[in-house]
Specification:
With 179 residues, the chain is α+β, with helices and mostly antiparallel strands. Helices cover 18% and strands 34% of the residues.
């Protein structure tokens, strides 16, 4: 007796098709990127796999990102991952100047530079990024605020340090200044 008899009304043979689909995951990509990063001063900002089959890798460096290095990383990934990349479109680039910081190293690279902070309440603050704590959980921005000084009728513009928790701001980003 046929083991599948009675399961179908048709007398046609049952055909099972197994499709071997290569699906690459973010951890595999990140491991390959980390191999390339080990040879220099670049650091990984983000790996994104988009719904339209693109893999977007953002890297950064204290002195900026060179196009030749992006091309070198792209070649490394293609050689390392080969067929695992499948039909994904690979895009390697810099984190983008003026974009919100995604990793703590970006905060550290911009100490002494002008930044914009968007607080949870929607208020924007602009000032000089003064410091980042050792754990990378807080940063301090020096802003100019009007302060009431005893003996003066009008408020005086003074520099004030404001400390923020990285996790409690909507974003912090380098402020492009074209002055």
């Amino acid at each position: 007796m046929h083991p599948f008899r009675g399961m179908r009304d048709s007398t046609e043979p049952l055909i099972l098709v197994l499709i071997d689909v290569f699906m690459i995951d973010k951890n595999t990509i990140q491991t390959a990127v980390d191999q390339w990063l080990a040879k220099g001063d670049y650091y990984l900002v983000d790996v994104e796999m988009t719904p339209d089959d693109r893999i977007v890798i953002e890297i950064d460096h204290a002195d900026g990102v060179w196009i030749e290095d992006c091309a070198d990383l792209s070649r490394h990934l293609q050689e390392t991952l080969g067929d695992e990349l499948g039909d994904y479109e690979l895009e390697v680039g810099s984190a983008g100047i003026g974009q919100p910081f995604k990793v703590i190293q970006q905060y550290r690279n911009h100490v002494g530079k002008e930044v914009e902070v968007l607080q949870q309440d929607g208020q924007k603050v602009q000032g000089i990024l003064k410091s980042v704590d050792d754990e990378g959980s807080h940063f301090t921005v020096t802003v100019k605020e009007k302060q009431h000084v005893e003996g003066k009728k009008r408020p005086v513009l003074a520099e004030v340090d404001k400390t923020y928790a990285v996790s409690e701001v909507k974003y912090c980003k380098y402020l492009l200044n074209f002055k």
